[in-house]
Amino acid sequence: MRLLVLLRQLLDPAGMLVNRKAGKVFVNREEYMINPADKRALEAALQIKDATGAEVVAAAVGPARTEDALREARALGADRAILIKEDVAAPAGRFYEALCDSLGDVDLILTGDSALDTGEAVGPQLAEMVNMAFLGNAVQCALEGAVVRIVRRDVRDATQRAYNGVEADLPAVVTVTRSGPTPRYPHGGAIIEMYRDPEAVEIMTAADLGLDDSALQPAVVERGQSFPPEREFGKQMTVEEIAERMTP
Fold first, then answer.
1. How far is CA 129 from CA 4, 24, 100, 135, 201, in A?
2. Which end of the chain is more exposed for a tag (fewer CB within 10 A), N or C?
3. Is residue 242 part of a domain?
4. 235 lies in some domain
């Protein structure tokens, strides 16, 4: 049994300051973190590993600094970590589709339901690409034989207190919300061990996955910028001026 967990590294909002008067966001500390929903997905995978002995593979697409997120995943209990080292803005789903082909048998893919910074969601698209069943918005996830069962909030309930259960045959893709399983803390010794191990994170490139330039075209191309006209404020007038204008 092999579980693939997809992670995204992003700027920690705690290091940002919003200046409303200036209308700008200042980055005081450039610190990075694992996307919160992805971290819950990793915890769901680790709980399945604890129960079944499944292999957990953590993967991410990004620059060299993304290794930190994957070393943290290894320290938490992931058996393997793979960094697809690319800086291009191509859709992540293309890389993960190729990674699934490279790994071979992947029974369950888990990831966060959306990214904290952009709101991007890779799960539904990837499920279509790899022809797997899709279950979204999970707060709990478990395996029973060749069936994955999740618990998710009932979106039809306005009180947000109702839940329902959904299941699908493996292989499947599951997205986990920020209300998912509470992440465990890594042991300090495990963190040190992962940073001392030069092979803790496997590095791959688009070429290693068989992707050429045509598959790496960005999903969005910036062709220019345009701004709305400056707002024209009203003219202030005295009572006498108003009265004069109103006089026929």
1. 15, 38, 10, 15, 25
2. C
3. no
4. no
pLDDT digit string, tens, across residues 3-51: 999 999 998 877 777 777 777 777 777 789 999 999 999 999 999 999 9
Number of H helices, E strands in the chain: 6, 13
DSSP 121-188: --HHHHHHHHT-EEEEEEEEEEEETTEEEEEEE-TT-TTS--EEEEEEESSEEEEE-TTSSPPPPPPH
Ranges of H-type helices in 34-157: 36-52, 67-76, 92-103, 123-130
Specify the DSSP element, H or E, that contains 243.
helix 239-246
Domain that holds residue 100: 2-221
Query: Does residue 202 contact residue 99 with C-beta atoms inside 8 Å?
Result: no
Identify the CATH number of the domain in which residue 48 sits: 3.40.50.620
- Answer yes or no: pTM beyond 0.90: no
With CA atoms as reference, report the closest residue to 7 among 62, 55, 47, 49. Answer: 62
